[in-house]
């Protein structure tokens, strides 16, 4: 299994969103990542940026990938922090990194319209370079992914955390409809992650239904799994988070399950080694 969503950080290097009184206000290293994955049957991890706030985070993630290929299969960097440099310099950065360039670049915000225009201007460069665009939006993530994918044929768009549906104890709104509509758009991939945090207090059978709805709509070739460790820690361990993400996959034949857990990640992110 490849964990397609984990973070590492040291608050002393930035990460202004981490509050001093938070359980997250400590350094999480590659050694911590390895310890947290012990016994889980993991074959690799895709590290995802954690809003350090400077371009150095991209190179730090790259260095971790190079130093620990046994642990880190790939990395997703922050698109925001490269926006002000403009498309030409961003293209040059990707070209210069060559085979060690990011496997994806993430763009986040309350909604697509709230993301920085300079960062959105880099999306065509991602399409040209064959680098995944990853979206973490508070609302409308699935609709935005469909719109962007339609505008940029060949661009793969990964949607974090099932598109951030509301906690099922509340009204899910248009989320179910958005899943069905977005599934009709090729090159949109959904990451089954974040559930331990987002669906806290929801019965397991309802979480399983949520996951199954996505997998049945998108198919195993367009679904990934991730722990969102160490964000998940206030609610449970990395293993707990992955177990919750796997709810709703029991109906899949072995070959399809293997695609959700492993081979789809290799193809989508272009992982090797």
Q: Could you please describe the fold and organization of this structure?
A:
The protein is 38% helix and 15% strand. The protein has 273 residues and is an alpha/beta fold. β6 (157-159), α7 and β7 (188-192) form a beta-alpha-beta unit. It is globular and about 45 Å long. The two termini are 14 Å apart.
The topology string of helices and strands comes to EHEHEHEHHEHEHEHHEHH
Quote the distance from N terminus to C terminus: 14 Å
Broad shape: globular
- By DSSP, the count of extended strands is 8
Question: How does the major sheet shape up?
Answer: 8 strands, parallel
Low-confidence stretches: none
Give me the side-by-side strand order of the main sheet.
1-2-3-4-5-6-7-8
Assembly of the depicted chains: single chain
Average pLDDT, all residues: 95
Kindly state the percentage of residues in helix: 25-40%
Rg, nearest Å: 17 Å
Instruction: Estimate what percentage of residues fall within beta strands.
Output: 5-15%
- Count helical runs: 11
Structural class: alpha/beta
């Amino acid at each position: 299994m490849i964990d397609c969503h984990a973070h590492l950080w040291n608050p002393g290097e930035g990460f202004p969103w981490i509050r001093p009184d938070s359980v997250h206000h400590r350094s999480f290293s590659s050694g911590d990542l390895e310890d947290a994955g012990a016994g889980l049957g993991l074959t690799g991890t895709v590290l995802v940026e954690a809003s350090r706030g400077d371009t150095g985070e991209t190179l730090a993630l790259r260095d971790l990938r190079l130093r620990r290929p046994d642990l880190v299969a790939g990395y997703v960097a922050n698109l925001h922090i490269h926006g002000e440099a403009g498309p030409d310099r961003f293209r040059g950065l990707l070209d210069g990194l060559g085979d060690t360039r990011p496997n994806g670049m993430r763009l986040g915000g309350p909604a697509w319209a709230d993301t920085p225009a300079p960062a959105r201007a880099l999306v065509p460069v991602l399409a040209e370079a064959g680098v995944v665009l990853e979206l973490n939006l508070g609302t409308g993530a699935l609709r935005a992914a469909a719109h962007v994918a339609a505008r940029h044929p060949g661009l793969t768009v990964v949607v974090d955390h099932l598109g951030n549906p509301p906690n099922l104890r509340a009204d899910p709104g248009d989320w179910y409809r958005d899943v069905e509509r977005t599934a009709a758009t090729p090159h949109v991939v959904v990451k089954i992650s974040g559930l331990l945090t987002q669906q806290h207090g929801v019965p397991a059978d309802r979480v399983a239904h949520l996951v199954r709805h996505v997998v049945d709509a998108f198919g195993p070739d367009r679904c990934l799994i991730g722990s969102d460790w160490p964000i998940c820690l206030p609610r449970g361990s990395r293993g707990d988070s992955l177990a919750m993400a796997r709810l709703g996959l029991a109906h899949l034949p072995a070959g399809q399950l293997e695609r959700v857990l492993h081979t789809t990640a290799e193809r989508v992110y272009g992982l090797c080694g």
